[in-house]
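Saturday, quiet lab. Running sequence design on the structure tokens for the scaffold JK sent over.
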């Protein structure tokens, strides 16, 4: 959660807690009742609305506490969860590898393929392995079909050897063909 959102959520929680506690305090303190306006006295402190007022006060306090805890937490949901792929399962438990580690292995394998300039990878864990989607930039003077097949083979072999994960599918999208000057600059 962004810092500014967290601050606003914290302030909102304090306001809710303050309103709930103030309302309960006013109900308990009969001296303050005489100083309140006719609307508040007529609605909040009448016998017929007393239970509703107490319920509203307690709800405001609980809502404020919930928002306070939410603003103090670091976020345990999706944004904090590290995505994993299972390498193997056995009697001792699961062996997993992070998708970031797999992405690093894919980058390393792609560097070894002639004609590949850069890649952006998306890895999707599936039941019995992983599926990989690669967006690649290639040099202008290469055979795209041959290079992408080489990329698929190299990535599959590298991941299965180094990580022990089963690669079920590799899809490659060539999204850029590098300019000649970029190729010369990267060939040093």
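Result came back. Writing it out in full:
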């Amino acid at each position: 959660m962004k810092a500014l959102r967290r601050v606003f959520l914290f302030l909102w929680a304090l306001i809710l807690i303050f309103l709930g506690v103030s309302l309960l305090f006013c109900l308990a303190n009969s001296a303050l009742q005489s100083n309140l306006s006719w609307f508040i006295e007529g609605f909040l402190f009448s016998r017929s609305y007393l239970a509703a007022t107490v319920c509203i006060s307690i709800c405001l306090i609980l809502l404020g506490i919930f928002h306070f805890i939410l603003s103090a937490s670091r976020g345990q949901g999706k944004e904090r969860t590290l995505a994993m792929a299972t390498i193997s399962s056995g009697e001792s438990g699961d062996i997993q590898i992070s998708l970031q580690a797999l992405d690093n292995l894919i980058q390393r394998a792609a560097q070894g393929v002639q004609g590949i300039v850069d890649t952006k990878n998306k890895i999707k864990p599936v039941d019995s392995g992983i599926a990989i989607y690669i967006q690649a930039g290639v040099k202008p003077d290469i055979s795209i079909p041959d290079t992408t097949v080489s990329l698929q083979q190299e990535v599959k072999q590298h991941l299965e050897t180094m990580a022990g994960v089963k690669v079920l599918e590799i899809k490659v999208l060539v999204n850029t063909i590098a300019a000649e000057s970029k190729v010369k600059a990267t060939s040093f």
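Notes for JK: The chain has seven helices and five strands. The chain has two domains: 3-72, 84-186. Ask whether to fix the surface positions before the next round.
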